[in-house]
């Protein structure tokens, strides 16, 4: 998955302060596929951000 590789690279390289997902519109997503993919991508990205921070930064 290319997007995931890019996000993992960003999380591994820098100090990510915030991020935002745009264009997830439930009214145009009757099956909920876009929302599920966005949620999965966000959780994976947050996991990589936390994994790469020293423990004392988020306690």
TrEMBL record:
InterPro entries in the record: Ureohydrolase, Ureohydrolase_dom_sf
UniProt signal peptide: none
Superkingdom per UniProt: Bacteria
MF annotations from Gene Ontology: hydrolase activity, acting on carbon-nitrogen (but not peptide) bonds, in linear amidines; metal ion binding
Protein name, as recorded: Agmatinase
Protein's organism: Oceanobacillus profundus
